[in-house]
Fold each of these.
Amino acid sequence: MPKNPNIHKVMVIGSGPIVIGQAAEFDYAGTQACRSLKEEGLEVVLVNSNPATIMTDKDIADEVYIEPLTARVLEKIIEKEKPDGLLPNMGGQAGLNLGMELSESGFLDRHGVRLLGANALTIKKAEDRLLFKETMEKIGEPVAPSQVVENVEDGVKFAEKIGYPVVLRPAYTLGGSGGGIAHSVVELRKILENGLRLSRVGQVLVERSIAGWKEIEYEVMRDSAGNRITVCNMENIDPVGVHTGDSIVVAPSQTLSDKEYQMLRTSALNIIDELGITGGCNVQFALHPTSFEYCVIEVNPRVSRSSALASKATGYPIAKVAAKIALGYTLDEIRNAVTGETFASFEPALDYCVVKFPRLPFDKFITAKRTLTTQMKATGEVMSICDNFEGALMKAIRSLEQHVECLDSYDFSGLSREQLFTRLTVVDDQRIWVIAEALRKGISYSTIHEITMIDEWFIDKIAHLVKIEAKLKETGRRITAKRIDGGSETEALELLSKKLLLTAKSCGYPDRTIARLTGLNEQQVRARRTALGITAVYKMVDTCAAEFAAKTPYYYSVYADNQEEEDEAKEKLTDRKKILVLGSGPIRIGQGIEFDYCSVHATWAFAKAGYETIIINNNPETVSTDFDIADKLYFEPLTPEDVQNVVSIEHPDYAVVQFGGQTAIKLTADLTKMGVPILGTDAKDVDAAEDREIFDEVLQKCGIRRAAGATVFTAEEAKKVANRLGYPVLVRPSYVLGGQGMQIALNDSEIEQFMAVINRYEQEHPILIDKYLQGTETEVDAVCDGENIVIPGIMEHIERSGVHSGDSISVYPARTLTAHVKETIATYTKRLAQELHVIGLINVQFIAMGEDVYIIEANPRSSRTVPYISKVTGIPIVDLAAQCMMGKKLTDMGYTPGLQPEADYYAIKMPVFSTEKVRGAEVAVGPEMKSTGECLGISRSFDEALYKAFLGAGVNLPKHKQMIITVKDSDKGEIIDIAKRYEKLGYIIYSTRRTADTLRENGIRVRQVNRISQESPTVMDLLLGHKIDLVIDTPTQGRDKNRDGFLIRRTAIETGVYCITSLDTARALVSSLEHAAETSSNLEIVDVAKI
Amino acid sequence: MKAFLILEDGTVFTGSRIGADRDVISEIVFNTTMAGYPEVLTDPSYAGQAVCMTYPLIGNYGICFDDCESDRPWMDALIVHEAARVPSNFRSDISLLQFMEKYDLPGIEGIDTRRLTKILREKGTMNGMITSNAEFSMEEILPRLRAYSCGRVVEKVTCREKYMVKGAASLADNGPLTGSAVFHPEQFAEEQDRYAEDEGGIGPTDSVPDAAGYVHWATVPGSHPEHEKKPSLVKKLTGVTGDGRHLRIALMDYGAKRNIAASLAARGCDVTVYPALTPAMEVLADDPDGIMLSNGPGDPKECTGIIREIRKFYTSDVPIFAICLGHQLMALATGADTYKLKYGHRGGNHPVKDLETGRVYISSQNHGYAVDASTVDPSVAVPAFVNVNDGTNEGLRYLDKNIFTVQFHPEACAGPQDSDYLFDRFLAMVRARKR
């Protein structure tokens, strides 16, 4: 069936701020869908509250609304834009829910808008737990038996019926809090009682436990004619019990026979048929490991994280095809863009093995429990491709950038066999390293399997890697012996046999690790293997296992004896000028989707200028790794060795590192060594900005002040410096993003504590100790062509210094700064850019104290705020930066140098957190970044912008008009005014004794509650009464953890209560609430594409 | 041990020997199925060919004899990138390497199978040799490779004597693999009790489907004690509309995969399997309600005798359904022509379009020859299916006859079960004729 001719204008809903479980994959899907719609000549209206996304670019959609994702806002946009269709299945659960809400209220019908690619009944059948169960039973597809209970006795009765163990999931709690697995009635009673209490609606789902079964997923597509295909199946190495987002996943399935594969495939197709899905859908199964029993875990009737993964794993563009299906095309009418010859109605055949590895945030949340459960905790993921499983696993591990490069990177060698048995029962992010150690200690496959339920096939592969490791060590011993015997280095090197080296390389061992294990150096290993003809060659991802010729140069490497191995990358080498763009790797707190935005825009800018563009990246969720963004895509880890391999074949004329965050910057020196010129700011100038001493000289030359400080390596040095400067001081490692490891220390013991944490890993660079200054933080992104700079605007943070810039509410244009301060900032930025010889981007952060301006830091590269400031000012910063790098001048591009005139709009960037999902993580904001995403509030009025920003972040108040305030002593003065304003809004304030005393003395009616340790009713009971809107809790400085405060904050966010830990945020919220009534009634929407 | 694959065009691949250590010359083809190597190994249609699996990791789940499509491997050799040393699956009887040794099947691993596939794709299927002799002489080998032809393989693979496959008296006889296994916890305990009473009992405890269409299983049939101990409930075949009970089908075995007879028997038909060279009159004398022409290896045009007999089936009024080689033979028997494809279709991901409904199905395929649709007499037959990828003919519907034939494999194994409905279509045709 051809395209529906009645559709001309389509609205696409994005997924909003990046949170754990809903991340960059929806930018990828949404962007692909929009491009696919535009390809069909349709006008696209895009709505998403997330300004860091590519989909919210005016290049991608015709009309762009960066507005809060609420039904009310969408209605306004529909009324204004009058689209004929609404595509809700590209924006994750958030988008789908909104689409449903608009459809069910009848709004879409009233305005003649068709719901595309989904219908209300389909979505309901898939999403509504009960309806889904009924539907599955109707077609004979099994689901794990479950029942919602409201009291303990019902739970006991049901559990007895279905048998233990049972899984308990309280309704409406976050982060899996209050849930668990009960193996006996005693356990059940305990968990259930607590769960019922924690649940806002007093309901807990009791479900038969299928933990330990194989978890298998199918990505399926169906068109309106009923044609169905499966794009890919995937097998989770971690059995059921770990969320698939936190599991190590392999594609295609490795341990399923065709009988099992086809049984589940047929089931998946039956399910989408019955649900009547048109588009993409993900079906998750649990398969009993020793029988054909299976059950359907869940169905996602939309694009998802898994579908992004499946797209990248196979080359099949699910979102693109889903968008075309939504328009009415059938699968056999849509061309397979990868081969250009075949059609979308086929099933990809893989001739390689794909491994996905989760990127977990435990390096940021060091107090958090590392345990993996059915609640997803990963902020991002990496994918790797190889022609064997071992190689893919090893590539994935080193792509994580978590100081791990092989299976001995976490050291469990100190554990005895008995301790290992216990350790193996722990399901956490280090499990495969524990398994490796268990194998080293001779624990059998079957024992490991019985404890972990991980299939023995995977255990065998880990064992193979461990065996190679042992052989390399053995070779190392012989090399040492040879050296002691006075043998030459050449003789020593020859002890490393070709066979072992070939095995180790083809199984993914990096040269660096081989060097470490054998006692050779990296150059020796490299020289040896090159001499033996063992090099990386590239293979193509072509969707069809080479059955048809493919057009898209999407490559992965394998190590092989290069005599006979074909290098497919060589087939497509050109004489064009080439530029290498280094991506930013997995999404993590501090290095998010913004850097992918920058990489993609840079790629487009260079392509426009006639360069052949080459991207190296390993993140399957992003737009940059879509097969048609760059001329060539290398899906590879971003380590020096892996990059060197690409350089050796492509010989790029230049590389750009400014856009890929710290991941790319870190490769600067290596690229220079490889002889690849870095386009833009010179490596030594990047160093100058990072190196404390050199930077101080630069600042002196520029006449810019900064907080006094020094660099240190040890705790002793740190304490000395801190005492000289006077506490409080800021402690942080250099060369990191997102303020990783940054802390405010109040005394010597805290210094010791923080230094110990930072020095968990060997630090290549010194640690910085600075005097802590309290003032207004401001930030600028600027483009410099070597002479002139363009500063699109100054952003001001609402939270005072001490809160990481990424976690602060950021306001553009700056509101409280005087003209003099703004001018100073512009002047300083220009001087710095010139002194650092910046060509391209620079981000500078300042503290304004009165009329004085101090610099915090300068980073000559792209930053988190680049997409945001580009969109609200309409200045394409990345494009300008790329052009500057190519030698163009800003004045030639039509820009007047200096600080640009302020926009007519206020644009407020609001951080969004996912801490509720990571149990045990600290909630309070501080110098180390914690937020996972952001949303934007944009309006002509500041109050409305603020209101929208809070709304976009999901803070939709007031509800019950009750709040809890507990603040530390030093905040007691400041809280009075804030409390008065909340009281005036009608809020009932609860406080613990000391805060209550202060408030009462100042004429505020406050209800006093007991601390947690005291007798009931305590502040905890109050929270669990589920009638609290808001908690303001400022934590005592430092990490001598105030248990009460920590518990209050955790309980608040886990029960869905908004928790504020900075007085500045509290003040901003109250301002927004004071205007909420008027703003919400006549909210004005802004088309960002028209700015 | 080092081994070499030498192609007709002079390309040499160096790998390691797996399976039997003997030299072999064969036609080299590739298969893109990712799982399902046991079915491919034992598919008689691969007789006379050495198969390169494009998926690099083969043997991961070992070999389960229940999955085999015949009694032994028929291919000449297996070519893989990596053969699993340690298989893992609860049903695995034997590892791939043990299987190859047991059945004297030679093979090679550790070569760039993608490069080999691309050579075959670009230059077309060609002959090759696998040898462990490092001292091989190209001058001696290449002429032998060019001269090689497997010849009349159907006669090699067909059964020696006719035999019967009894139709399932109830769904219970179908085994657990044909549908979706359903777990009903409420009944689980009950089943377990029943199993305890009737230990080792094969077959259903209650063969009558319940209201929801489920048949209650006490055991999973098979020779594996571990999974006999796993009681489960097995769903009725999905999509079964044609009830084949009391129908007698003659299956002509040109190299038939086991699942053709099994698919018919599962629907209740009694299937009589005939050796390929059985005269048509002998088959017709048994008065079958329907005739199935099976898949099989080799060049259809070599089967001159069989084609003559098929012509007799065509003129009889017995409903006929043909698969793969059977489809080609019927076309030849009715005056159409076949040709050799450049590199064939072998895999589990080929889209075929049902021209009557416009629906596209993903099919299991294994053929090196195809019917030239332009040579089909439009008064005899019309195309019923077409390959979406390359437009080649995938099926014919014979006019004024109860005959339809397909190039792909509705019996799947390995591959998708999407076109399983064709068996029902055939049985409906047979039933209608019988009435």
Note: The radius of gyration of chain B is 22 Å.
Amino acid sequence: MAYKIKSAECTVCGACEAECPNIAISLKKGTYVIDPAKCTECQGQFDSPQCAAVCPADCCVPA
Amino acid sequence: MSNVVSLDSIFGLGELAPPAAMPAAPEAASGCSSSSCGPLGEMGDGPADMDPAVWEKVKNHPCYSEEAHHYFARMHVAVAPACNIQCNYCNRKYDCSNESRPGVVSEKLTPDQALKKILAVAQEIPQLSVIGIAGPGDSLAANGRNTFATFEMLQKKAPDLKLCLSTNGLALPEHVDTIAQYNIDHVTITINMVDPEVGARIYPWIFHKHKRWTGIDAAKILHEQQMLGLEMLTSRGILVKVNSVMIPGINDEHLLEVNKAVKSRGAFLHNIMPLISDPAHGTYFGLNGQRGPTAQELKVVQDACEGGAKLMRHCRQCRADAVGLLGEDRGEEFTADKIEAMGAIDYDDEARRSYREHVEAERAGRHASKAAAQADVRDSVGTAVDPILIAVATKGGERINEHFGHAKEFQIYEVGPGGAKFVGHRRVDQYCEGGSGDVDTLDGVLAAINDCTAVFVAKIGGCPSKSLAEAGIEPVDRFAFDYIEESALAYFKDYAERLGQGVVQSRAGQDAVIRTGALTARRA
């Protein structure tokens, strides 16, 4: 149960990193990645996964 | 980075003193030396029609004072790539160094990189007075972290530079206290509507309070946040400029209501900009055939809004990493690689201080000289002749100091019995490259200034001169290196005479094409 970032479509804007309540998103080798061990898909925290809701490129998707 | 810029090279005249041959000031014509008293209204850049405290804030700010934009440079640092809304005129995937429009950058910077770049540019460009953060996303999205980190360092390292930011307003209310704390005197809010029905056609979604909102709900929240943020800023004495993108068929007439709404909430300036729309940009509007306005359509809306919030017409819709005077972009001289190679850079404001003192000295004389030229036209021409438009090739300093073939834009002045005023600019492809002119490019220039009666240049070749004359636009080089407004008034006086004799025709009713392409571009 985790989300992932489709790196080919990511614009590396960092909006997702700022919104993630679990500090699961970080910049690795010039692209943002989600740590599946930390990702909760925001269940119990918010209505929907925050990264997907804020992403301008709609590239945060279920892994 | 070897050459330190001299003031001489900025003016290109080898003179630093205020101009010697200045017409005598009029006998306080109608008790007011401010140009804002003329029938053209609105143009008043100067202490006479402005609270001195406000004038102090705007006089050296190229984006807030039309006069200042001839003399002072700005720099945007692209530290804020994240955004919290989607606009139909923006595609955040697009990045091209040959494109000049908001939301576009070549390099994203960390706050540390931004600081170093600012110090490097400040050493090289003494006209630099303003540092802005305008994205490429929203400066206050992602909690404004990078924006405020940059300003915090800058405030300590380079205190003579003014700070400003621009935002869509969604996250503005929660950041107003922080903005005030960093002495950010100038904030720009992009407000395209005050009616959510209109907004729903411009914004597909927003991200607010941990949720993505769409449709009318999204536009309603955005509108409320924008109005609240605007009120909060103006009540704290922070100057607010409102940017509006004019989208024909969607918000063109509606912008009059926007103008009223922002004026009543204390906005200092209203900047109505043409939509930049091209399928190649990959924006929703671009891909769906939404067009931008023509030059005259834009002017009609701007003119209709006059008398409301003060209009700004000199906006160049800069990239989020623009460097230099408005109308130029020297960003390529300051890429990350080049900055990195520079080593340590010290802060030294001496060149900037002496440049500012020079402009201050020149200013007093300029106001009197403009008023004298205006009084002369009023007395000799009367009010019967309609105003005309003049295209001007200039490199800055309010002078006609650019060759026709080298111009990347023409500044447009409206001149008539009420005075001369800057009303806009038209971007063009440089006609002359490598010593020879290009016919296709010339056609583009003609289309861009087709509503003008004359074009003022420092120099022009025989061929383009002939083509302009055939198109009914008079090429004029007799005012080379003189001040623009005084020359425009002198020309108008002569024009009115020739019109009376039937030697020239009025160009009323002509329109022109707004070119939305690149400022920095070579020809495609």
Note: Chain B touches chain A at residues 81-84, 86, 92-93, 108, 137, 141-143, 145, 207, 210-212 (CB under 8 Å).
Amino acid sequence: MDFSYTILIPLIPLALFLVLGIFSKKITPAISGWLGSLGLGSSFVLSLYTAYHYFLKGKVNDVYQTFIYKDTWIIFTDKLHIDMGVLIDPISVMMLVVVSTVSFMVHLYSIGYMKGDDGFTRFFAYLSLFSFSMFGLVLATNLFQMYIFWELVGVSSYLLIGYYYTKPSAVAAGKKAFIVTRFADLGFLLGILILSYYTGTFDFDLLTNPEGSIITNGVASSFMGLSVLTWAILLIFIGGAGKSAMFPLHIWLPDAMEGPTPVSALIHAATMVVAGVYLVARMFPLYYFLDNGFALDVVAYVGAFSALFAAIIAVTQTDIKRVLAFSTMSQIGYMMLALGVSKYEGHDGLGFMASMFHLFTHAMFKGLLFLAAGSVIHAVHSNYLKDMGGLRKYMPITNIVFLIAALSIAGFPGFAGFFSKDEILVAAFESNMLLYVIGVFVAGLTAFYMFRLYFGIFWGKETKFEHAPHESPLSMTIPMLFLAFMSIAGGYIHFSEYVTADHQSFEAHLNYPLAAITVGVGLIGIIIAYVLYKKETSIPLKLSNSFGSFYKWTYDKFYIDEIYLFVTKKIIFGLIAAPAAWFDKHIVDASMIGIGNATASLSNRIKGMQSGKFQDYAMSFIGGGVVIAMIIFYIWIN
Amino acid sequence: MDILSLFVIVPVLTVLVLVITKNLKQARLVSLVGMTVQFIMSINLIFAYLKERAISTDIMVFTRDVVWYETFNIHYNIGVDAISVVMIALTSTVVLAGIFISWKIADLPKEFFISLLVLSSGVFGFFISLDLFTMFLFFEIAVIPMYLLIGIWGSGPKENSAMKLTLMLMAASAVLSVGIFGVYFNSDADGGALTFNILEIAQVNIPLAAQNLFFPFLFIGFAVLGALFPFHTWSPSGHASAPTAVSMLHAGVLMKLGGYGVFRVAMYLLPLGALNWSNFFLVLATIGVIYGAFGAIMQKDLKYINAYASVSHLGLVLFALLMINKTAWNGAIIQSLSHGLLTALFFALIGMVYGRTHTREISKLGGLMKVLPFIGAVYVITGLAYLGLPGFSGFVAEMNIFVGAFQHPDMFRRILTVIVVSSIVVTAVYILRMLGKIMMGPINNDEFKNLTKATWYEKTGLILLMIPVVAIGVMPFWLSEMLKESIQPFLERLL
């Protein structure tokens, strides 16, 4: 079987980026929009074909095979070299489908959404750059290739968050996102350096082979009680946690909502932010087998805590995009949790499968939520719940698709999110009760804040609009309808047949008692939201007052941003950078100038001797001669 | 005429023709023609070198040896390996771009171009020399015109800056000359004649005591030019006062003489000294990397930011050289190239911004992207390349250095390596802070709305520098393999 054609999937957006980037002044908006969509459309079709081709025919002896096509990019040492290429296995093919689907939909949607913007072509160029980088990341054959594209998605994200570059808040948000994730990437890079030094390779197929020597002799040497390799993968996980906005590296994600909404849908909901999950899944055997899965436990707890933490914050936010951002963080926490409780073989690998399943369904319904939110924002020109209400009459399609997505994320039976979330909770239930309880509680919170949002936007108070909002154009509604379809149909794909940790299919069934509990908790959340927000009442206000300072803490996101600000402004700038600059000017440079001045003043003192008077010179000459004669005489007599 | 001597002769001939030119138009045309020839020759040299390398196993090719001053056994001895070839290509690219950037220089154009070309002939001579004395001579030829270029065509407290720069570099030369004579007078240790010939000295076993004594002289003498902490303070004020093309050439090429000299002379001729001193200088280089980066965060003037960034990035070159292994050295040389191109780009861009807005203070600039889209875009790309984004040369260099440095398992170097690697975060901070303040955000001065767009010669200069940055970043394989072959004989001396 030959999958080498998959290389075209990233190359098409790259070509688009070059064309749109270089000729951005010459290409008219209409052409660039359709050109971009056409390009991503071809990547989309190719990805679907790859999935069809691979999942139907990629098995040998019931095991999905891994296909690698690569070429050397640079050689570091005798052992270490970076290859560029594509790696085809179940998770990369699944990710191709996710990325190309959402990217294609977002391209189409942006034609309508960004209409009239004077940076239209630039916008599509950035989108293509992002798509290229994300495909490259997904298809990476080795850790270093992944790191390279990891940085490239980071910079695409930076450019797109700061797309409205004349707006200071957007510029600041882009900068924050880049620096926070770069800080996390420092961990990633150090992890790669350690891992490659002790294993002698970057290649995923060597690193993650469960029968290979790296895993079987994993404890190369130990450091503070753990294998150095465990330290390495923990450092790598920091990189993943940074990209995937896990606590405490999540602070950039809410601010990233400064970017245009299609960008939030593509990058900050569906694709780039799940790169951390993908990274852990890609290296799953290492996480699972080294030191009895110590690193994997860390992943599980970080995921569970982030899921809970973000869901609590999401309840109180008033900017609809920020609610969705925290929701994204919470759902990614779920995926991490699922990976963290997973085992490797057969049905025990349920968590792994559930995590990938949820990644897939989440991309569809969260992408849709953002696109629908964008449609609303487009209509009312505001991000805030207070400016919305009763919109169902003006925007019927947006209303329906938003409802579908909300039901899906809330885990309502029959919708995609129900199936994937159920698998996650079953996996958690089978391995760790605490994580299971957190998961169920978060499910309830999710249903509540999502329906708070839904009722607040489309029902609630009847807002009086100066210009009546109207439904978005077809180029925006069609992608939304497609994703709405996927937010239901996506759940009926038998993931356990295709995407598993050990590349072998297993049978997964709904666990009815557990599903009933989850659905029950979700319904309670929806009902509370219904009571509170279906009609405008004063209950929510009273309720938030009764929570007092806890409400305020939550509303202010537990002051994590302020802590970061303190550390950067006061400690790094105030106690390191400023003293360094001062030291340089007043100590290092001053001492150099001091040497210069000392030389000058010394010459000033002795320049009097060069008086130009013959008598002075004669005087010195004779005086000097006498002194020398005396010295010689003294030596001679001794 | 041999292919290498032309690299000195063409600039000298150009200078001679420049003497009879009458105005700016003639002067820049002559310089442009001369340097275009030089540029084409340097591209040709790369291919000629590859061809020659395929059939020759000598360390140096295209060698030529003419006795120059017999009493002291001084020769005009030239030859190149891959490292000098790429440095020559870098120099000719930066000089040519510098001519384009100085297209409209107002005062004394003829004298300006003459000084610039004299300087560059010194640099070219330095890179082809295999004789310590001749090399030192060219080194001085390259350093002296700097004083005139800054003192006459500079801005701000230019006399003071020119003085500081020249005196510090002269002091470094004095230290360096002690080292060179130290090597020279020990070059008969095995019973041969005294010699300045680098390749011959490399065959001699210089006594350990002499190596330990003279290595710091050679190292510091060269490394001052490579902005070694704490001898870097000539660079920020010098660059701030220098005219654009001079800053480009100085930071882009002249500062590379430091790392090149350390590699070619200090470590090659005194390998035992290098091994004994490496930990000490490693600490200084590490401090330089992180200290320069933090220093850059607090600067208010664009050129100062770039100057401190150079301290950090050239500290990385010295750090990599002292790590003594093939990967790190490969990284050091690519970093030299990459930093040379990127810093030249930065200074060119700063010059363009300054020429239009008459300020370099970041607090007074803002939103320039809107009015200067081309300059703004190149500024952002250069910034991203500078902070080590994959796809540009800086990334390739840094990764070679980091992977190379990580091949030493001892705790001491591990800790230094981790400190150095963490500089990538600090770099991102000062670069993005600068980009965000000057290029993005609202336009904070109404006068900026009428700035003139980039002209064709400015664009040519920028694109000329940008092409190799991208080429190295996207396809590093050929460059890296070509360099490694030439690194090997130098590395073997230290193993």
Note: The first helix of chain A runs from residue 8 to 22.
